[in-house]
Amino acid sequence: MSTLEARGLVKRFGPQTAVDGLSFSVGEGEIFGILGPNGSGKTTTVRMLSCLISPSGGDATVGGHDIKAEPLRVREIVGVLTENPSLYERLTARENLDFFARAYGLTDQTQREARIREVLEFFDLWGRRGDKVGTYSKGMKQKLAIARAIVHSPPILFLDEPTSGLDPEAQRDIRELMERLSRQERHTILLCTHNLEDAERLCTHVMIIAKGQSIVTGTTGDLRRRIAGKPKLEVRLVSVNERLVKAVEKVGKVEASEGRIVVDLEDLEGGTPEVVKKVVSAGGQVKSVSLLEPSLEDAYLKLIREAGA
Amino acid sequence: MRIDRALLVFHKDWLEVRRNWQVVLPVTIVPLLFSVFIPAVFFFAASTGGSSSGFGQLIGALPPEVQAVLAGMTASQVMVYVMVVYFFAPFFLIIPLMASSVIASDSFAGEKERKTIEGLLATPLSDSELMLGKILVSFVPSMGVTLLAFTAYSIVTDVLGYGLFRRLIMPNLNWLVLILGVAPLVALAAIGLTVMISARVKGFREAQQISVVLILPILGLLFAQVSGLLVLGPVVMLELMAVFAVVDLVLFRLGLSLFGREEILSQGG
Hints:
The structure holds 2 protein chains of 2 kinds. Chain A is an alpha/beta fold. Chain A has 2 domains: 2-226, 3-Layer(aba) Sandwich (Rossmann fold), CATH 3.40.50; 231-293, Alpha-Beta Plaits (2-Layer Sandwich), CATH 3.30.70.100. In chain A, 39% of the residues lie in helices and 28% in strands. Chain A has 11 helices and 14 strands. Chain A has helices at residues 42-49, 71-77, 93-103, 109-122, 138-150, 168-184, 196-202, 220-228, 242-248, 268-281, 296-307, and strands spanning 2-13, 16-27, 31-35, 57-62, 65-66, 78-81, 156-160, 188-193, 205-210, 213-218, 232-237, 253-257, 260-264, 286-292. In chain A, the strands form 3 sheets. Chain A has a 6-stranded mixed beta sheet with strand order 6-7-8-3-9-10, sandwiched between helices. Chain A has a 4-stranded antiparallel beta sheet with strand order 2-1-4-5, with helices on one face. In chain A, helix 3 crosses helix 4, helix 8 crosses helix 11 and helix 9 (242-248) packs antiparallel against helix 10 (268-281). By secondary structure, chain B is mainly α. Chain B has 13 helices and no strands. Chain B has one domain. The two termini of chain B are 24 Å apart. The model of chain B has no long low-confidence stretch (mean pLDDT 87). The interface between A and B is medium-sized, with 33 and 25 residues.
């Protein structure tokens, strides 16, 4: 059963259509990625699903609650990381989390304080809990904003660019947190991102959108193969010369660059020994032979170019 | 609507407001000026025999009931009494007006300017809980400041005036009605207007600048009193309270209709 289901969501701002008929569903414990360039409608979609703005058309349910009929129930079970950290800079980290935890219904003080300590310790912010947020670095603010989104342990999370502004170590921590929340604790996560590495590593399914419309939805592996094509053979060499390229071109299409050729073969398994044989007989000194998987980035860029976004 | 949740918003905003010098400074300095500095100047002018020749004409224009109160007083006593007890009363309304409009601008428009509004609107707090919390944080401190300033004004006036009058001249019934009856309604009018303005502007300063327009009716009252058109007696003040109650009602209805999550976000939140 889907935890989150959108059916033909539309949002218009005057004459402009920001979201144009998006439909998708996300199962419990899944991480669903929405990828798209700036202005493609990602944030507007999250705002509609978190009941901050109402759709101009279509409908959606979040955790079984209709976003139009039960907005307060939806907000109770959702944790939102907004585009901006949305933190009170004159308050301390602890005061920020205390306010949001209480606003989300964590009324028991002992329970609330334990939870605040848990999330602040997870993000290495416990030592700075008494400092005003205005004194925090960008990365610390981003961590605190994520802490705010999860402080009430919501079953559903909407995360808009969660790793933006973080150093590599903190990015890894956030990815691990999302994996843990999804796989072990069965939280459902809707992830809006430009970071294709995040999407590739974390998402079970992704939807690529441009100009408010869905271009394609599927698993990351699916999209890579369907859109960016099949794997290619990469041969690393001491040096590449014209004679060698011509010899390999008899087997498949070749892209040559310094110290490397990439061969597009009809039959990868059957053609690989033939390629190596041609290279060696043309005098090439092989350093390594490997499969070159198309990346999600290739698929994404291809689709976005085609959509003209 | 749950009051405890509105109080949660109040508490959060109060923590923020009291750490913001752009709010604390005007809300402290103006009342201090009105309650201590200005009455001290009046008494100093009276003690140094400040000219009261032009003052005679001013007194002559006052209604008979005021002149009856002044009968038997010396020229210095009349000058101080009229200034401190009558003319300064409408001026004092600037305190609740200014304090509530500065705090409300910070609480409503400031939240948009600092881009904290989206996180707040994403919580399960209802529109009415958010609105009430923010009205309370604008109203309670501004009335607290008004009462403190009034107390200080009364003490300063009585301490400095005892030598001249040999009795306590403050507070009197007029002032009590003004502070406990008119001032809260003026503060609510300022909050109602600021809520409306804040829904349409992007920042704290913009909201505050437009709210300054509220000072005009207060100045109108002052000039009406100085020219003898009206005296802020209990009856006039009851009429004023009725007018402000209607104004409050209209402003809050309009403000509430503009205080929706979608409207706030679409106006640059």
